[in-house]
Every structure is written in structure tokens, then in C-alpha cells.
Amino acid sequence: LLGQILDLWFESEPLKATLATDAVIGAMASPHTPGSGYVLLHHVMGELEGRRGAWGYVAGGMGALSQAIAQAATARGAHIFAEKAVCHVLLGRDGEAQGVALQDGTEVRSKLVLSNASPQITFLELIPQEQLPKDFVQRIQQVDTRSPVTKINVAVDRLPSFLAAPNARDGQPLPHHQCSIHLNCEDTQLLHQAFTEAAHGHPSSRPMIELCIPSTLDPGLAPPGCHVVSLFTQYTPSMLAGGRSWDEQARNAYADTVFDCIEDYAPGFKASVIGRDILTPPDLERIFGLPGGNIFHGGMSLDQLYFARPAPSYSGYRSPIPGLYLCGSGAHPGGGVMGAAGRNAAQVAIKDFRHL
């Protein structure tokens, strides 16, 4: 249990609760949920430029990271087809992968196919079910993809000024503006209550909010004096109580709750908002192909990690389809901006390619 781990090391409840946010981030779980300690480990195990556990902003936004990978690939002869949806994986007589078919009818032939789509899309939508072992299909169908995350992107015309550390008169960013700001986490019990509400189908009345202002470090993201604020919030259920879906009213009501909370910490925040984009779990699934809106392609619970990710006997990136490899967040070791699954899968594919 995360609570037990934090109790061993810390006395301050606000510090423990703030650290606990990284143990439940992206997870429909509470700090009291068994196994939550691993998710915290997963978020602090790496390093950035020699600093262990550090995270960083990508200059130009997260899309710039994808562009950097794309440029490195094309420099080595790769061809990238954007906005070309894959319809299904092409299979040979013996059930081996032979390429992919696009929705426009184009067929791209190849000896190997690597998919960084979720296991659900890869195996339940792109492959005929009769080509896969029944127990494997059942396992993929049973993966827990519940997600509590609603992402809100905000444009503001001035920097938030927090009661705990008011802005300087010149309005220039202060050190706390340039890192991750965690709100509504003064107490671990607050996080548990927020989880409990969502578990019963109700968006949290006092949501956990992780607030970043990337434009303080990357001014090109917003016009002079203005900023973009990224809100990673939870908990919100995929389906609301009573089977209600997320309509415009429900989405705006939840966003208003989040903004009311921020207003308590930084009076004037609501008046500074000039635009907002609300992405609930169904929106994240529809737009980005995240099953259930889950940023990790599936919960990072102990029963869905290591040798069991995405399914027992298939954690080594190979799949039941010869020549088809899984290389996204649904593969070992799971989500996070680290590229480990892709790198590992590539090494396995290269090893196999030499024998074709």
C-alpha cells in the first residue's frame, strides 16, 4: 500500500498527499488501493539529464517529441504516412503478418508489423478473432482500462497568482510557475474521497488537480503576456451514474468545479480564462485511441504488469501472430514518456528479422 510506504518516510500529511498523486495518476485507484505504490515507483524510477526522478517539458509541446522521432526515422529512410488509418493487418496463408491495409484501400506489404496502438485496437479490431487463441482474446477483453482522467487545456491572459506565493509586480514567472503545481491534495484522505465519488459514478466534487504552465518555460506557446495552462484532473468516471453520458452540460459543470477549486488557491484565475478545451475519458478514447481514456493503454496494476502485460506468455513484444509486435504503452513496462517499450520491441523485431 502506498500509504504505508509514505508513512515510513514522511510525517507531513500535505507532503505525503502530494507524493501520493503520482501513485494514482491516470489510475482509477486510491492511495489506499493495494499496488498503488508501484505506480509511484514507475513515475520516479527514471532520470532526466542525470537527475533521478526528474521530469521535463518538451520545447514546442509534446508533439515536438513525436516530430523529433519522426525526423530521426526519415533521416534513416523511413516513410511516414500521417492521417492514414489502418483498417486491418494483412495475414498470409499460415496466419503470419504480411503488412497492413489502409482504410483508403492501399495495402502496405512488409515482413514485420509493429503496432503501438493499444492491445485492444491491435488484437480486437485489426486482427480477425478466429486467428487468435481464445484465451488470449479473452485476456485482452478483460484488461482493466478504467480511467479517471479529464484533461483541460486553458488559455489565460495573465499568469495565475497564488495566495501562497503571490506574483511579483512585473508579472514575470516565479520558480513555482515553472514546475508541477498540485492542488486539492493537502490530505491523503481527500484523494480517497475523490476516488470514492468517481467509483460511484460521480465526478469528484473536489478533484485532484495537477497544474502546469509550460508557456513559462516555452514562451512560443502563447502570445506575449498570455499563457497556456495544462490541467490534469481526476477523478471522473467514463460513464456517469444512471448510465448518463458526458454531454456538454456535464463536461462544463465538471470544468467549472475544477476552476472554482483553482480560484480558491489563485483568486482571479477564472477571470483570466479566455478559452478552454475539456477532454473527458470518452473524448480521450475517441480522439487518441486510448481504451477507456486510459493514458497507459491499461491500468498499471500489479496483475497487468511485467510478465502479464498485455497477457501472460506475451510480455516479450511478440504476439500470437508471427511477425506482429506490440510496442506501445500496453506492452512491458507500460506507460510514461520513456520509450522503453518501443526500444525493447524494436530490438526483438530486429533479432527476428535477421532470420526471415
Automatic annotation (TrEMBL):
Superkingdom in the source lineage: Eukaryota
Keyword list, A-Z: FAD, Flavoprotein
GO molecular function, one term: oxidoreductase activity
Domain Amine oxidase, residue spans: 35-170
Family label: Belongs to the carotenoid/retinoid oxidoreductase family.
Subunit structure: Interacts with COX5B; this interaction may contribute to localize PYROXD2 to the inner face of the inner mitochondrial membrane.
Protein name: Pyridine nucleotide-disulfide oxidoreductase domain-containing protein 2
Organism of provenance: Sylvia borin (Garden warbler)
Gene of this entry: Pyroxd2
